[in-house]
Design goal:
Elements (H helix, E strand, L loop, with lengths): L3 E6 L2 E11 L6 H12 L13 E7 L3 E9 L11 E5 L2 E9 L3 H14 L10 E5 L8 E7 L2
Antiparallel strand pairs: 1-6, 2-4, 2-5, 3-4, 3-7, 6-8, 7-8
Length: about 150
């Protein structure tokens, strides 16, 4: 059984790459591509940056999605050339923990849980996928959906 819960996250500073394109046609293939691009450039980050955890905030509207693959950085840190950096505001999230292999089941579970427990997805805020080990199907993944 997949467990869902409420989590409050503070503001996070992120740096990495993004892709914006038609939804759903471009996904998940472009999400995988942008994550691979980040993986290929992880040695460009300072040694103080934890490159074992990939943060992938995303925003989806009817026909367009923007998806990021980033590492958490310190505010004002030097960012490798060609990457974007931004501040992801803190929010209250519904969170589910799953694996890379069961991420689809994780999405089903979290949206059911949000509805069943009377929460409402916060419009205009990014949802986040967090990957702890991208190189294995059993690697831990989390899905965070902003709620009010």
């Amino acid at each position: 059984m997949i467990k869902c819960e409420i989590l409050v996250r503070d503001t996070t500073f992120l740096a990495g790459f993004s892709f914006s394109g038609p939804f759903p046609q471009s996904f998940p293939s472009e999400a995988v591509n942008v994550q691979q691009l980040l993986e290929n450039r992880k040695s460009d980050f300072l040694p103080t940056v934890n490159t074992d955890i990939v943060f992938s905030p995303y925003y989806v509207c009817e026909t367009l999605a923007t998806y990021f693959a980033c590492y958490e950085v310190s505010e004002g840190a030097a960012i490798p050339e060609g990457m974007v950096t931004f501040k992801l505001p803190g929010h209250t999230y519904a969170r589910v923990t799953c694996t890379n292999k069961t991420i689809t089941d994780g999405y089903d579970a979290i949206f059911d849980w949000i509805q069943t427990n009377g929460h409402k997805q916060l419009n205009g805020a990014c949802s986040i996928e967090i990957f702890y080990k991208k190189d294995t199907e059993q690697g831990k993944a989390e899905i965070l959906i902003p709620v009010e």
